[in-house]
Design goal:
Distance between the termini: 55 Å
Order of helices and strands: HEEHEHEHEHHEHEHEEEEEHEHEEE
CATH superfamily of the largest domain: Dihydrofolate Reductase, subunit A
CATH architecture of the largest domain: 3-Layer(aba) Sandwich
CATH topology of the largest domain: Dihydrofolate Reductase, subunit A
Largest sheet: 9 strands, mixed
Helix content: 10-25%
Bound molecules: ligand AOF, zinc ion
Number of helices: 10
Number of domains: 2
Structural class: alpha/beta
Amino acid sequence: MKTILNRTAPGKKDDQKFMKIALKMSERGLGFTEPNPLVGAVVVKNGKILSCGYHQAFGMKHAETMALENLDVPGTTLYLTLEPCCHFGKTPPCTDLIIAKKVKRVVTAMADPNPLVNGAGMRKLRDHGIQVRCGVYGDWAERINRHYLKAIRTRVPYVTLHAGISLDGKLTDDAGRSRWMTSEEGRRYSHSLRGEFSAILAGRGTLLADNPRLNLREPGWQGKTLYRVVLDSANSLSRRLNIFKEQERFPLIIFSSDKAPNRRKKVPLHFFVGHDKHGLLLVDVLKQLYKLGIASLLVEGGGRVLDSFIRERLFDEMALFFSNKIVGGRNSGQIFASGDRLEEALELVDCRWSEFAGGSMLRGYRKCSPD
Ligand code: AOF
Ligand code: ZN
């Protein structure tokens, strides 16, 4: 007996298949869209993809516009990795375009927590007789857009801690040296990671020890602006350091203590914040970064800075680059010198390992307490 498939009403499997494509499309914008989200769009009719789009970079067309603007086919199904916007921002509301193009059905992976949208986009579509399904691969979409979502929900950036460590977990040798803990390939890998973020942060100790440029040199990130954030409580860094170079493409943001004897700004984005016995108040630093439009931050160290972010649990993810070396030593540096009792020990979840010549990388998420 022949089964007649009703192609105008796709089943669950079709929805998953096309949403998967939309999610993969969305990732093409990685590193270029913040503080806005990564969004992918796929237009389908009778089981066939008619067009696709994704949000390429901040301020550019929304994914919906890219996918629909040159298409004049009514009765389609539109797959979106995020609820469409319904407000006038840098671009007109995508819901208006979806209605004008006579889309029949919209499938989204998740609602947009942006207070200007927050369910109103899907309501507007339903009010115009468009069928809406929400929640297809919602967890996956949450993961992909974790920077955007954390920032818009909490008004502080998503924070990833980055460190190059030995197999026995050491950041430095006994003499405090960290150069070159990881292999050449590991270093290239970790430099490339910078491109995924809006900003990168280092403490005064790292600047004095290594005099890094903290810029983007790996291929694939041409034209990207990366903010460099420096913590210098005493406001005593020399302007001769490499970090003061290349500020056009890599703007420099400095945080110093509001009690520093010298309160003269060294760069236009120089902020003076409170401090306690451990150093600058990191929550205030993060809040200020969010106000500047920074949705994600890669913390590159050194040990003191990493220790503070871990102690205060002010991070979301870790990217640890392990070299195949054992350094040992009683005075060698650690990423979390303060330490915790075993019962309260820090735990990472959903860990993924990848290998490179001379070592391996671990990426995992901070396990949040149940409260
Ligand atoms: C994007 N790209 O593909 C979609 C977005 O300032 P605007 O006009 O670019 O609007 C930004 C907001 O629009 C963003 O925070 C999100 O709520 C919504 N959807 N944004 O940048 C897109 N679909
Ligand atoms: Zn839009």
